[in-house]
Amino acid sequence: MFKKDDQAQNDESQNEVHVETHTESHVSSGSVDGDQQGRIDELTADLQRLQAEFLNYKRRAEADRADLLALAKTRVVREFLAVRDNFDREQANRPATVDPAWATSIDAIRNQFDQVLKGLGVEQFASKGRPFDPHFHEAVAMEDGAGDHEVVLEELQAGYKLGDNVLRHAIVKVGKTTEPPAVSLQPEEPAAPVEPEVAPEAPAETEAGGEVK
Description:
3-stranded antiparallel β-sheet
């Protein structure tokens, strides 16, 4: 019984060696028939196609992700512009007798806000005195004039750009002039803070003998 088992194991090992030897000799010989070469070419073409499809998918996914981030950034920044408008309104209507320390604090916050917007790529563009351009301006009033050149007479709400795209149109009042206006729309320079007027101090009263109360 044991002899039969040993003989069977020897036969199996001989078969395995025979198969491996046959395979190695087939590969080493480098001989590939026409059917095998056609199969190799087919599999290679399938692999190349899959690689190309994956690269295209990766590019589309990255582009979609960039578009989604840009859309989210645009929506968030546009909401903050309403807060920035309130700083402009405060500065335009600041009382002359306002506390200087309070005014300095507001100006510092506004400047910090502008730096944050600038870091995000947001710029305010000037409109007053520029030619009316519907790509940048939204006209809400029109003043008749003698000329044929449409120019922005007054800026009612500032316009902003995010990179090369208009983030928000400027709301303006338009008129006509005989002289052509400036043609460039440059980023708006930050307005200098308005220094509040300081009320003069009352003269100190003196007592007899020259002492100040």
